[in-house]
Amino acid sequence: MKRLTPLLTLLSGAVTAAVLFTMSAQASPPGTQPAADGAPPAAAPAEPADVEPDADDDVDPAAPGDEPGDIDADARRPAGTSPPTEPDSSSGGTEVNSVEQNWIGELENGATIAITVKNGKAEAYVCDGRSMELWLSGTVRDGKIELTGKDAKLTGVIRGDRASGEMVVGVRRWKFTARPDDTAVDDAVVKSGPGTAPAIYRVTEATRKGGYDGGWIMLPDGTQIGIVTWNGKPIPAPPLDPAFNSTVVDGVTLVAEPVIPGGR
Amino acid sequence: MSQHRHGGTRTVPRRAAEPTVEVMRDFGGPAPSAPRQRPSLLVPLVVGAGVAVALGVYGRTHTPTGIAVNVAGFSSPLTVKVWLGTGAAFFAVIQLLSALSMWGRLGGFSPSWAGAAHRWSGRIAFLLTVPVAVHCLYALGFADYDTRTLLHSLLGCFFFGVFATKMLTLPKRGLAGWVLPTVGGLVFVALIGIFLTSSVWYFTTFGVQF
Lengths: 264, 210
What we know:
Number of helices of chain B: 6
Oligomer: heterodimer
Largest sheet of chain B: 2 strands, antiparallel
Number of domains of chain A: 2
CATH class of the largest domain in chain A: Mainly Beta
Number of domains of chain B: 1
Low-confidence stretches of chain A: 30-95, 183-193
Helix content of chain A: 10-25%
């Protein structure tokens, strides 16, 4: 028996690890996975076949349906997880977790701007991917964009599929232009509307309390631009893992969530 | 194995409460003229190497999720890991001391309970590392952003490999005197290296948080 105890130690460690792995697999919000291939949480409940592109993590397929919205990141997967027999839940999900329209464009100084709109409310994120970032919020109504941020004001107009205007930060002033982001929409879905996927992500509030902030813009070509700020010092953000809205900076895991106007 | 005491150096840990084992070691083991008869370390070494490589490959290929189960009461999964790691490092120091004591390297201080203390502190330390490793592997993966993370990843894989080797080596009787101290020393060094590249780094970077 004495000779067995080291093996028992190993075995108990292995069993503990197995249990924890299983729990982790279930704790990870499977709801985020459709984002892995850029698919929007769009109103496409008739196509459940392609919504699990990345379900390799022993994820219990029943889990997302059981607890919709339980995990905040889970909120990103409104339609895909719902079986086609539940059209209501999918539309309810998009109501909460998607936006009406994203405008993505550039400032004169080369920085990227993203404006996300829902129900007339708007949030915007401007960043150059290196050192400059700015959060704004306001309204987009009747073709007029009016946003404010810290020491900053952004105004613009929408004509057709083109938005333009200028942003004033302190004493500096930049023009910007932006176009609707329709890439978030997979085939056969309306170009924009209630089902558009969020284009702006920000580090969750819990993480911000830890001294980290960060924002990301999901660009139409599938790439991302973003900045992570740690205790006020900005650094280029590593791309968010689209499957879980998280990334690792200096060994610290940052979890982000989509920015939904009026969401909080 | 009859040369257990050369130069006054102990090559077998003192096992006060286990005279039968001691007898087996001294007289039941192979004669010194037949050193080839010593138990093979092939299986422990192969298993340990396999464990280390498997963990590394898994950590590298598995897409990090950034998320794993958390322990209540801490502000983030990282602080949990930091403190579990610190606990493991604490017990690792006890491991070192109790091992030194068992092998008579602490002067006359070699209490009968040193063996038990060694076994139990080792079990606790090992079990403390398991949730940390699961989180590392599942949520973060094998990383090489910089020297620290690379070193940490390598040592993490190495630790569990060499620990498996140690556990599989322990039941073997009649080993050369250097085997267990060497393997145990590697386990200790690996764990302390992991601790320095994670918990200590965290404390010095972020301050002591819970």
